[in-house]
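Preliminary data (for renewal application), magnesium ion complex.
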Amino acid sequence: QAKEEGRNKVQHFDDQMLAKARRRRRISDALRVALPQQQFSLVYQPIVDLQTRKVVKAEALIRWQCPKLPGVGPAEFIPVAEDLGLIQEIGEWVFQQVALMARDINMQLAEPIQISINKSARQLTAGDSSALWLERLASLNVPAHWIGVEITETLLLDGRPSVQNALWRLRQGGVQLSLDDFGTGYSAMSYLLRFELDYIKIDQSFIRDVVRPRGRAIVEAIVVMAHKLGLRVIAEGVEDQRVLSILQEMGCDYVQGYYFSPPLAQADFLSWVQRESVWVG
Ligand code: C2E
Ligand code: MG
Ligand code: MG
Ligand code: MG
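Predicted structure:
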């Protein structure tokens, strides 16, 4: 009986592995044509300054309209793109789109908004595009401080000087840096010693928990630490008023989440900002 059960479990495990491998294979095949067939787009999620209640930033998030695999999200396909060596090209496309978007919307807004780009560690280790990015921003007449870069992943902790230099050059050029998903295994405290940064983005798993005493204590401690280090804090995944008011009480600087807005297409983002230029909660 026990043996039979064990065999079933192994069978089930094998099936799952096989299904996973198949899905990954299908994603890989489809990804190779995604860029040339223009299947990617970007959406933008507003980030609100808690002091002024204004939208001052936005995060650019990639979307993939894959005809064969509808609804596959970046958390699933970005790691595959990294393994295939496609992330460099995709990352350059994202950068180009964001630079143009920042230029377009900021021509129409009184107060400029900073748009941040997610950059995975593989993108950073594969080569230094910082000089190129700064040049392209200059040639597009986009001030570097209109652009931000969000980084994560313990891979960076290899302490490769090339990665450190690339980030340093970007920041010297005026691009602001955020440490994304802070508190998770992908974003460790040791970054704060090694890298010169501007923002810490506290992961949504912690933000959800601020309604409980222990969760609140942790986020409060992160805010105090960040401020002592001269960094500002962005809370990710704010979904309700209760969480928002606790974050406000503890002196969190910026908030982002479905409570304000989901990520939006560029045109919707612009009209949202123009409508809610001062957000009242
Ligand atoms: P991230 O950078 O931590 O992005 C935040 C994720 O949380 C986004 O998921 C966003 O849509 C989602 N989110 C925003 N507000 C809320 C909320 O109130 N509640 C909940 N539950 N979720 C919320 P998304 O767009 O699926 O992106 C997932 C991850 O994929 C990103 O995590 C980022 O690591 C990566 N990614 C997205 N776009 C790019 C890109 O252009 N390049 C690279 N290298 N990675 C990207
Ligand atoms: Mg991010
Ligand atoms: Mg994040
Ligand atoms: Mg994330």
